[in-house]
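Incident review: delayed structure delivery

Summary: a single-chain prediction request sat in the queue longer than the usual turnaround. Root cause was a stuck worker, restarted by the on-call engineer. No data loss occurred. The affected request and its eventual output are reproduced below so the record is complete for anyone auditing the incident later.

Affected input:
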Amino acid sequence: MEAERILWASGEDDFLLRIGELEALDDLTESGVLDLRWRLSQGVQRGSLAYSPVKVREVLACIRLGLQGAGMDRSTADRKVRQAFDDADISELNLLAFTILTKAFSGKGHDAVGETEAGEAKAASASPASTATGQPSAFRPRKSKK
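Output delivered after worker restart:
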C-alpha cells in the first residue's frame, strides 16, 4: 500500500494508515474505524461535514496516525494537526479523515478489479475454443411429461 499525497490545511503531506495505525485508531474510537468512517459520512445527510457525529479527538487522531503511517515522526505530526485545527474548518478535517480512512480500505492498486491473469492465460491456451456451430448430435433428450 502506498501513501497518498494530500494538500490540506497544514501543507502537502503523505498519509497512510497501515494495520498498526488502524489498530491504534480502533483503540481510540468507541466502535472502531469502520464505524468512524460511517459516522464521518453522516455529516452529508445532516447538511455539512461539520455536523458529523464524531468526536474531535477521533478526527485528529485519524489525521495524526495517517501522517505517522506515512513516515512522519509523532511530534511533527502532532504539531501539524494542532496547526490545522487552529487554521481549518472542522468540516475540512472531517473530510480529510474520511479520505484517509477510505484510502486505507480501498482496493489495492496491484489487485485491480476485472479479468485475472489466469482468465487471460486460459484464452491464450494451446487448445482453440470452438465457436463454430457443430453438427447436431444423434442423441436427443426425451421431453418431460408435465
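Verification: The longest helix spans residues 90-105.
Action items: add queue-age alerting; document worker restart procedure.
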